[in-house]
Amino acid sequence: MNLEKQILQLAKDGRWYQDIPFVGVQVPMSYPEQKNSQFFGLNKWNNFIEPLLPFKDFGTRRFLEIGCNAGLYLLKAIELGFKTVVGIEADEAFYEQALFTCDYFGLKDVQLLRQVIGETEPNVNANGAEHFSIKETLVTDIVLLANVLYWLTDDASHQLIKDLSYKILYAIVVTVEDATGLSSGSSDFVKKLFSDDWVLVKVCRISEKFDPMPRQQIALLFKSVHLKEFDLHELWKIAANPNKEEPHREQFFRCFTEFVHLVFKDEDPFESDYFRYLIDKGGIGEWKTDNQIKRYVVETAAICKSIRNDGLKEPIQFFGHACNPINGYHRLVILRELGYRKILCQVGVEEIR
User: Fold this and answer.
1) 3-class DSSP assignment, residue 57
2) Is the same domain home to 156 and 109?
């Protein structure tokens, strides 16, 4: 089957909603005027999304798009050099389009998930989609919600935005201006939605004048009040500093660092100083007997590999107290050995203000 026939076969109601730049083939768009409008497709990325990206070191960053449609902005995130790119789409037709886009452009490292968030509008075909789980969502630098919130119920939107604030540092929301108030998805609605757990950093608008398909559109950049980016080297100096309350901390860091090395080389973790350290110490937490300690070591080795392969599921918690500066010593060591320079930590609101 040639490319044009494949694209037509994948169209939803005879059309695509994103103008994917396939070579030599024009996708059937909802309205021809969208292609030259400053408010749709690639121009939406250029005018509303990329200008709000709060960093330039993309090679160390994780990008998530919720409601990724046919995958146009996943493609742009890869082109910018994001280390990890993930797209979530509930609608079956759009998900299939995104799979096709990623396959066509060779985006093997993009992770696509067919997931639904709460209840959606009736014209979203979410049958067969898994339910979105914030517990399984990895710690992420930025999430994009481009004209997607008005497809969710208000309750689903509120829960999603609160949950994301504990896992994601920045959020870019593209939505519509609406002077009439809190209609679902309007800019006023979005600002209120984010008001408890995020701070508004920047707003982007452009003129509608002379546009072939004008739209009252706005993009907003928010930052979570629960997360803060730390320099790993500085955090290491704070966390690894021995004190009277935790005299074994220095030994733990030395032993567990060696343990991570062994695990990453697929060597026997029971030959590690960390295993002997746990035995001599009488275990850790509820893991007391030799068999429990062995099971703990096996599970810890699996966590090391999971973080190496996928990333963090939970941010390290930063308290800043000398006796107990963080919750997440093991994850700190793992990230250091993986070469991370910056990490996201959960902090109290007073830390980030």
Assistant:
1) coil
2) yes
CA 154 to chain centre: 22
Q: Taking the CA atoms of 324, 330, 336 and 341 in sequence, report the sign of the dihedral they define.
A: negative
Neighbours of 46 (CB within 10 A): 12
| Beta strand pairing call for 62-66 and 115-116 | unpaired
CA angle 83, 228, 110 (to 5 degrees): 20
The total number of structural domains that make up the chain:
2
> Can you tell me the distance from the alpha carbon of 257 to that of 254, in angstroms, rounded to the nearest whole number?
5
Domain identity same for 220 and 293: no
Residue 112 above 70 pLDDT?
yes
What are the backbone angles phi and psi of residue 168, rounded to the nearest 5°? -130, 135
173 or 117: which leads in pLDDT? 173
Asked whether 134 and 37 are in contact (CB, 8 A), the reply is no
Q: CA 289 to CA 291: how far, in whole Å?
A: 5
Q: Token digits for 117? A: 């968030």
Residue 179: is it exposed, middle or buried by C-beta count within 10 angstroms (0-12/13-18/19+)? exposed
325: three-class secondary structure by DSSP: coil
Closest among 127, 22, 116 to 67, alpha carbons compared: 116
Give the tens place of pLDDT for each residue, 246-290.
667 888 999 999 999 999 999 999 999 999 999 998 888 888 899
DSSP 29: B
* End position of a domain, from candidates 225, 248, 269: 225
235 burial level (CB within 10 Å; 0-12, 13-18, 19+): buried
Please indicate, yes or no, whether residues 267 and 339 belong to a single structural domain of this protein.
yes
Examine the domain organization and report whether 219 and 344 are in the same domain.
Answer: no
Neighbours of 108 (CB within 10 A): 7
Q: List the CATH number of the domain containing 30.
A: 3.40.50.150
Contact status, residue 200 vs residue 221, Cβ threshold 8 Å: yes
In total, the chain counts a number of residues equal to 353
- What's this model's pTM, rounded to 2 decimal places? 0.91
In this structure, the answer to whether residues 113 and 213 fall within a common structural domain is: yes
d(CA 88, CA 86): 7
Chain mean position to CA 129: 19
